[in-house]
Amino acid sequence: MYNTTAFLYEATAAFEAPERTCDEIEGFLADCGIKSPGLLGDLGSGTGLMSVLLAERGWQVEGIELSPAMLAVAQAKSRMLPAPVRERIVWRQGDISRFEVGSGKLWDAAVCLCNTINHLAEWEQVKSFSSAVFQALKPGGALILDSDTLDTFQGFFHHGPVVVWDDGTHRMTRACEFNADSGRASHTATLEEYVPSGLRLLSRESMALQYHRETELFILFNQVGFQLAQAVPYNPCPNLYRGFVPKLLWILQKP
After folding, report:
1. How far is CA 17 from the centre of its chain?
2. 3-state secondary structure of 171
3. Based on the number of CB atoms within 10 Å of its own CB, is 114 exposed (0-12), middle (13-18) or buried (19 or more)?
4. Alpha carbon separation from 200 to 120, 191, 231 (Å, rounded)
5. What are phi and psi of 247, to 5 degrees?
6. Residues 45, 91: contact at Cβ < 8 Å?
7. Considering only CA atoms, which of 126, 147, 113 is closest in space to residue 231?
8. 27-42, pLDDT tens digit by residue?
9. 86 to each of 20, 56, 65, 202, 247, how far by Cα in Å?
10. CA-CA distance, 22 to 7, in Å (whole number)?
11. What is the pTM of this model?
């Protein structure tokens, strides 16, 4: 997953202003009585964008990411960080639907952003993820995650081939199909390079995503043991999504 698109991920990331997003995350954590420094899990850490920004703010970060290519980008990035920041981050390959804390120490907080929960296409994965995070947090710890609304999910994951990157050397094309009956979407990314004869296929990757109903997520989080601190409409890209709220941001706390 995301092995084809890893090197372009941050160029097309789902944050207009990552620093502002960090401000908002830290504000919600502060509302739960949690402040840096502390130990924070970054679930679905990708290329490490949020891991680095949070580590720069003093958090000790444990990132978990399934894609080897995404991790390779993150590790390459880490070599350019100042030593104090680099030493506050540990990334490891793993499945966020079944994991244990790598340090052996429970987390003060965890984040799971960029609609990562919608990449858990099976409901059993969502259940396992929720339980694993609950077990990974200290009492009083908080989980902040976002989930796509139905309109966002359907709009973002139902379209024909669209060129999302073209720098004259490589071209990335994305195509998605959404099944309204099942809430399941298929996503295919195609990477090509320009050669004298035209375009040559480098890789093609497909993945499944799932829209999860807000009412079902709320019931599950409660069953696991979380208390809902807040659930707020959330727009990480206000300049792109004008007058439209694409996500729900969940702030969940372990009693």
Report:
1. 15
2. strand
3. buried
4. 32, 9, 46
5. -135, 165
6. yes
7. 147
8. 999 999 999 999 999 9
9. 21, 9, 17, 32, 31
10. 22
11. 0.92
pLDDT digits (tens, 9 = 90+) for 76-98: 989 999 999 999 999 999 999 99
Cβ pair 16, 239 in contact under 8 A: yes
Both structure tokens of 166 = 């073209």
H-run or E-run covering 68? helix 68-78
d(CA 184, CA 121): 8
Structure tokens at 255: 């009693």
Beta-strand (E) ranges in 66-214? Answer: 89-93, 107-112, 137-148, 159-166, 170-179, 184-195, 198-210
In angstroms, the Cα distances linking 145 to 4, 104, 149, 182 are: 25, 23, 13, 23
* Bridge-based pairing state of the strands 227-234 and 247-253: antiparallel
Distance of CA 36 to the CA centre of its chain: 21
Contacts of 49 (CB under 8 A, 6+ apart): 10, 13, 15, 18
